[in-house]
Design brief:
alpha/beta; 9-stranded mixed sheet; 59% helix; disordered N terminus; disordered C terminus; binds adenosine-5'-triphosphate; Kinesin_motor_dom_sf; cytoskeleton; ATP binding; Kinesin_motor_dom; ATP-binding
Length: 734
């Protein structure tokens, strides 16, 4: 179908070419043979030869049509057909123009040219055309024409010979005949030309009408083609729709395929992984099996080695067996010998057992004796303490410290007996002429010089501590002015070490050690500690939670025990507890110190250690009590010059210290009334002072010459106490 269409179309394309060739031939005027060069020149100057070239038009139309057909699109096909029709129209116009214009132009040119020029050029043209014509009819043999001027009269005497007009020359005005001939020639030529043009026009008109009918045909053909193109377009649209449909189907299929492919891939990968896992498992199993095999081989080798050893052992055992048999015989002989020896030894053991029984009886007797001796020791110890005096006074002089080192302690003299101390006072008379020296001698149970260390001091009081463990009430006081070394003696410095720790920790340590040693003798001790402070006649718990204003009452029980209400009691079951206790007391004191400056100097601190011992062997029970008291500074009111709160404090201190002195004095004088209730301190210590107690007082002395007066007072107070003889201590044994 398409092939036949193309064939027809080629023919169609060819037909305008043939028409155009025909038109081109017609468009070219058929000039007379002598007019050809003129016509050619004119035609080359004419505009029709350049703008309309039917061949070019056809070529363009060919290429467009070919392109249109090749692309097979309707849009392209339409311009092609339009181009074809416009080409035909252009061709028609070109033919008409080409046919009429050259001839008309020539005629117009000849008619409108100025006369002279016209005549000249016409003459020239006629000459050009006439010469060959005449040459054909009348060849110019021997004819010449003399050129004369137009005004010159004709030469009448010469025969009238038709002279040839020279080329380019003008006929003179008088040559009317010649000029007429020229005109006639021109007229004839023009007529001929007109005839030819008319013929040509007629031919061209007929050609034109045939071309128009051809164009009509072509138009129809184009319309037919357009219809077919439309049909084809519709078909194309349907095909495109179908193609789109197919494409979407294809896409769906591709999508489906891809999904399936992905699934298959996934499945394949899973299978691959499974295979890899199986492979790995198999490899592991193989490895295990290889290991098992190696182990089995190793076991087999070991077994073989063991077998070999066994074989060797069996052979050596056989040899041994023989050896054993001979040994057995020898052992049998030995056994007989040993049996007889054993019998002898059994007899000896019986003897020894009798001796052991005897020895055990002796040990029991000795142990009994030991216990008796321990009891005896306690009694003797107590007797010694009693002989030493139930109230003793030790004097201790602290060393010069820091800035004080520039001072001298020449006013204090220490006799060699370690029991005496002398204060020397040098006085100059008012006029300065006389200097008197006065000595104040004092005697105490012991005098410690400034160089004496803490362990040495404790060595002197350890017997009293032992008495507390033995069941006696013991009180150890530190008395003296502020800064004389009372706290240092009783507790030690702020950060104590093993060398400089005070009497309280040392006493507790000794009690621990002795209690542990006494465990062998059946004694089991429990130790309870309390630490209180008496400030302005009020009792404060130094082991408590630091509650300010909490009231504590003193109660004396009928069994001779003294208790303090709501006061913290610590079980001192390990030595570490003592340092814990001292630390806690220090913290509570620091809190109190913020409320009252220099409070520690202005209060009495009382550490009480209650010792309860049980002897599981003898059934003895002992209850001892050790009070270690750091008394407040003993400055006299007159020297302290205190006022306000400080005056109140000093009065309270003085009252309690003088009450202590009064109590000791009353006890010494065996007065019927002992004024214990005069102060909180004496009331608290009621059961620790007096008949059944042992009391030790440290009188601490400052070495400074400036403290001479206070030192003298302290030593006088201590002497008063030292002179007291308080009853006989009674041991509390139940
Ligand atoms: N034997 C000593 N060896 C070394 N230093 C001592 C000795 N005695 C006391 N001191 C030091 O002297 C200073 C005063 O002593 P301490 O505080 O014990 O006096 P105090 O009488 O307790 O005073 P207060 O009444 O104010 O408490 C302290 O720095 C203390 O360490």
């Amino acid at each position: 179908m398409l092939g036949s269409t193309e064939g027809t179309f080629d023919d169609f394309l060819d037909s305008p070419r043939r028409i155009m060739e025909a038109v081109e031939i017609q468009a070219t005027p058929t000039p007379a043979p002598n007019m050809k060069p003129l016509m050619k020149r004119k035609a080359s100057q004419s505009s029709i030869s350049e703008p309309v070239n039917p061949r070019n038009v056809r070529a363009k139309a060919d290429s467009r049509t070919t392109t249109a057909l090749n692309s097979r699109t309707t849009a392209a096909a339409r311009p092609t057909t339009r181009a074809t029709s416009s080409t035909a129209a252009t061709t028609r116009r070109a033919v008409a123009t080409a046919t009429v214009k050259p001839v008309a132009a020539k005629v117009t040119e000849r008619l409108t040219r100025p006369r002279a020029t016209n005549v000249a050029s016409t003459n020239a043209a006629v000459t050009r055309r006439a010469v060959p014509a005449r040459a054909a009819t009348k060849p110019p043999v021997g004819t010449t024409r003399t050129t004369r001027s137009a005004s010159a009269p004709p030469v009448s005497d010469e025969p009238e010979v038709k002279k040839e007009k020279p080329k380019g020359a003008r006929r003179p005005a008088w040559d009317t005949k010649g000029r007429l001939e020229d005109m006639e020639e021109l007229t004839g030529f023009l007529k001929e030309q007109i005839q030819q043009s008319t013929d040509s026009m007629t031919t061209m008109h007929s050609k034109l009408s045939s071309s128009e009918s051809k164009i009509q045909e072509l138009e129809e053909f184009r319309r037919g083609l357009e219809t077919r193109v439309e049909v084809k377009e519709k078909e194309n649209t349907q095909i495109n729709l179908k193609a789109t449909e197919l494409e979407s189907k294809l896409e769906l299929l591709e999508q489906k395929n891809q999904d399936e492919l992905r699934l298959l891939k996934l499945k394949h990968e899973n299978e691959l992984e499974e295979v890899a896992r199986q492979k790995e498992r198999i490899l592991r199993e193989k490895e295990d099996l290889t290991n098992d095999l190696t182990k089995t081989k190793e076991l087999l080798r070991q077994q073989e080695d063991a077998n070999l050893q066994l074989r060797n052992t069996i052979s050596s055992q056989s040899a041994n067996y023989l050896q054993l048999e001979s040994d057995h015989r020898a052992v049998k002989n030995n056994l007989e010998t040993t049996e007889s020896t054993l019998k002898q030894r059994e007899a000896r053991i019986a003897e020894l057992e009798a001796l052991l029984t005897e020895a055990n009886q002796t040990v029991t007797t000795i142990e009994g004796k030991l216990r008796d001796e321990e009891t005896q020791r306690r009694k003797l110890h107590n007797t010694i303490q009693e002989l030493k005096g139930n109230i003793r006074v030790f004097c201790r002089v602290r060393p010069l410290l820091g800035a004080e080192l520039s001072d001298s302690i020449s006013h204090i003299h220490f006799p060699d007996d370690q029991k005496s101390i002398e204060l020397n006072q040098t006085q100059t008379s008012a006029d300065g002429s006389k200097t008197t020296s006065k000595t104040f001698p004092f005697q105490f149970d012991k005098v410690f010089q400034p160089t004496v260390s803490q362990p040495e001091v404790f060595g002197e009081i350890s017997q009293l501590v032992q008495s507390a463990l033995d069941g006696y009430p013991v009180c150890i006081f530190a008395y003296g002015q502020t800064g004389s070394g009372k706290t240092f003696t009783m507790e030690g410095p702020d950060h104590p070490n093993k060398e400089n720790m005070g009497m309280i920790p040392r006493a507790v340590m000794q009690i621990y050690e002795t209690a542990t040693a006494l465990e062998e003798k059946g004694w089991k001790y429990t130790m309870e500690g309390q630490f209180v402070e008496i400030y302005n006649e009020a009792i404060h718990d130094l082991l408590g939670a630091g509650e300010v204003g909490k009231k504590h009452d003193i109660r004396h029980l009928p069994n001779g025990k003294t208790i303090l209400t709501d006061v913290t009691t610590l079980m001192l079951d390990t030595p570490d507890k003592v340092s814990e206790l001292m630390k806690k007391a220090g913290q509570n004191r620091a809190v109190a110190a913020t409320q009252c400056n220099d409070r520690s100097s202005r209060s009495h601190s009382v550490f009480t250690l209650r010792l309860t011992g049980n002897n599981t062997l003898t059934g003895e029970v002992s209850e001892g009590i050790l009070n270690l008291i750091d008394l407040a500074g003993s400055e006299r009111l007159s020297s302290s010059k205190a006022t306000g709160d400080r005056l109140k404090e000093t009065q309270a201190i003085n009252k309690s210290l003088s009450s202590l002195g009064d109590v000791i004095y009353a006890l010494a004088n065996k007065e019927s009334h002992i004024p214990y209730r005069n102060s909180k301190l004496t009331y608290l210590l009621q059961n620790s002072l007096g008949g059944n107690s042992k009391t030790l007082m440290f009188v601490n002395i400052s070495p400074l010459p400036s403290n001479f007066g206070e030192t003298l007072c302290s030593l006088r107070f201590a002497t008063k106490v030292n002179n007291c003889q308080i009853g006989t201590a009674r041991k509390v044994v139940k």
